[in-house]
Design goal:
This protein is α/β, with parallel strands linked by helices and about 200 residues long. The chain has 6 helices and 7 strands. The radius of gyration is 18 Å and the shape is elongated.
């Protein structure tokens, strides 16, 4: 009996090391390409619509080089009281973000786009994250680690940022950077058996 053909690697439109690590953890074959898309976050943007649009635009920006492979685009935002917390530009901004999140429950929303030449799925995932009440000294020490750099909301739950968290409700990997349960469901539905799901 002939061996089954290998799965075509997904094309991940992202430079995020966290997203690469999650795909590797799930044993999903993939290649990486930087999206040719500049994100903009307008004031008063709807967070759900925003992450879905960014995910779609990232995936579409590299679709021309996908060569029939499925393309994955992802965008993640941290949201509290309707305010979108993006990536801090400097340590002071990171500390302000964390101070705002201290003692409160925020939502991590990710948009995910899976597309091929024949179809496009755009969905989203939301995870609720409750922070402990953080003392100013704790905030300062955490910001000094530099872990906030390049992270929406100014923290990394898979690193020292785990100590800021009191509880989590939903997909943990979504907070890390990729809504893995959602991606697995889409792969199981669209490519039943191909990637080991469905």
């Amino acid at each position: 009996m002939a061996d089954a053909p290998p799965e075509p690697p997904l094309l991940l439109a992202s430079t995020s090391p966290q997203r690469r690590a999650i795909l590797a953890q799930l044993h999903i074959p993939f290649d990486v390409v930087a999206p040719r898309y500049e994100e903009e976050t307008p004031l008063n943007a709807d967070p759900l619509q925003l992450v879905r649009e960014h995910a779609r635009a990232k995936a579409r920006s590299v679709a021309d080089i996908a060569e029939e492979r499925p393309v994955v685009g992802v965008d993640t935002a941290v949201v509290l009281g309707g305010r979108i917390f993006g990536k801090a530009e400097h340590a002071g901004e990171a500390e302000q973000m964390l101070e705002a999140l201290s003692g409160k429950t925020h939502v991590v929303i990710s948009g995910l786009c899976l597309l091929t030449p024949g179809w496009e799925d755009v969905e989203h995932e939301a995870t609720r994250v409750a922070f402990r009440k953080l003392a100013p000294r704790e905030l300062g020490k955490y910001v000094a680690t530099g872990e906030w750099e390049g992270r929406a909301g100014g923290y990394a739950i898979q690193g020292r940022g785990a100590a800021l968290v009191e509880s989590i409700e939903g997909d943990y990997l979504n907070v890390v950077g990729l809504p893995a349960a959602l991606l697995v469901r889409l792969l199981a539905e669209r490519f039943s058996g191909v990637y080991g799901f469905g």
